[in-house]
Amino acid sequence: MTTNDIINPANLIYTKTKVMNDVPMHYCPGCSHGVVHKLIAEIIEEMDMQEKTIAIAPVGCAVFAYKYLDIDWQQAAHGRAPAVATAVKRLLPDRLVFTYQGDGDLAAIGTAETIHAANRGENIAIIFINNGIYGMTGGQMAPTTLMGMKSSTSPNGRTVPLNGHPLDITKLLAQLDGTCYVTRQSVHTVGTVRKAKKAIRQAFENSMAGNGTSVVEIVSTCNSGWKLSPEASNDWMVENMFPAYPMGDLKNL
């Protein structure tokens, strides 16, 4: 095989989507963010929406998405992404508008914004990365931290008397009249990556069709925060996170 054979477009099987910027990612090895970024970029290109997409990122690891996806971005204050997305979508209803949020952002400081935007049925998509911990700021306990799960602020494990119950905010959002599609996925295997991509595509299509709020939770790993290797983190997620946050659609109208 010659060099010309390799670069001949007729021989190409896969190319990186043009929506992804050509810069090295900073995420920890094994982090799920990079995979989800790639899926979002591919979907935007497939929908031919690169010039008509506006994404909202708040504080946390999620905020760095603007470095990697070549679309319009607006940063929001911690937890306020759904409120900002509401304004953007109402002002520019022909745009694809989505938020990209972690569990500490969406389910803690942003609980009110998330619930009320979803309850109003704003025509936005919410991409929710749930790794059960505050990944960027030191591995503190999050609302989604499991019972018995250790963190920098729950070194002996989460307990009900001291810390209360974990918050399954995705299940809560599925009960609201304004949500049209609520699903929980993961990206730790080839099969789950494909399912997650299909779910994100459906959420984006719902937004453009004016069907209401869509929520796609991606149950993820944080191997640096969990103090595990990437491989062990995937195993721990399957064994511990999935029973508490089971995969599949919670609502699909």
Topology:
Blueprint: H1 3-7, H2 33-46, E1 53-57, E2 72-75, H3 81-91, E3 96-102, H4 103-109, H5 111-120, E4 125-130, H6 160-163, H7 169-174, E5 179-186, H8 190-209, E6 213-219, H9 223-226, H10 230-244, E7 248-252
Parallel strand pairs: 1-2, 1-3, 3-4, 4-6, 5-6
Antiparallel strand pairs: 5-7
List keywords for this structure.
7-stranded mixed sheet; 10 helices; Rossmann fold; about 250 residues; alpha/beta
Structural write-up:
The chain is an alpha/beta fold and 253 residues long. Helices cover 38% and strands 17% of the residues. The protein has a seven-stranded mixed β-sheet with strand order 2-1-3-4-6-5-7, sandwiched between helices. The longest helix is centred in the last third of the chain and has 20 residues, at 190-209.
Outline of this structure?
By secondary structure, the chain is of the alpha/beta class. It has helices at residues 3-7, 33-46, 81-91, 103-109, 111-120, 160-163, 169-174, 190-209, 223-226, 230-244; strands at 53-57, 72-75, 96-102, 125-130, 179-186, 213-219, 248-252.
